[in-house]
Write a structure and sequence with these properties.
Blueprint (H helix, E strand, L loop, with lengths): L10 E4 L10 E4 L4 H16 L4 H16 E5 L13 H10 L1 H22 L24 E3 L5 E3 L12
Antiparallel strand pairs: 1-2, 2-3, 4-5
Helix pairs in contact: 1-2, 2-3, 2-4, 3-4
Length: about 170
Amino acid sequence: MLTVKKNREPVWIVLTLPDAPEPSRLLLKPWTSLGIGAGREELERAIAAGATVGEANVAFSIGMAVWAALAWEGVGDEEGDPLDITPDGVRELLEQNQGAYDAVDRKYVVPAFLEEHEKNGSSPLPRGTSPAGALTLKKTKARKSRGAAGTTVKRAARPAPPAPTS
């Protein structure tokens, strides 16, 4: 049976770095399929612009966070004046601050995927934050290699006989 969680609450993500003078936090909506869609849209834009897989995965997480952002505390400009939250401001914060990006990715985006895959009866992604960035390794009895045409070819059980000499 599929279940629907009611009354889910927004979540505060702490963005504070060890050298930050004061705590910073970002309030995010409970994740939904709409947030995942916003992330995928950013991922597709990044790929269309020629981004690497890693860059596209970062774009996905930032897109999901921009969609979800409701409020922040302890975020300001170069002069130390507090900034109002805007989609562009959230994007700039996560692009410029690795610690803030890591906190959002690790505490919001990845758990959303794990929960989504668990409720769908799927195993969690082995690594990465999106299906485009995930790698799946399968163990098989026979080793396989790719031929020149890209088709899967089983290796011969015995080595080929030596070529005749003239």
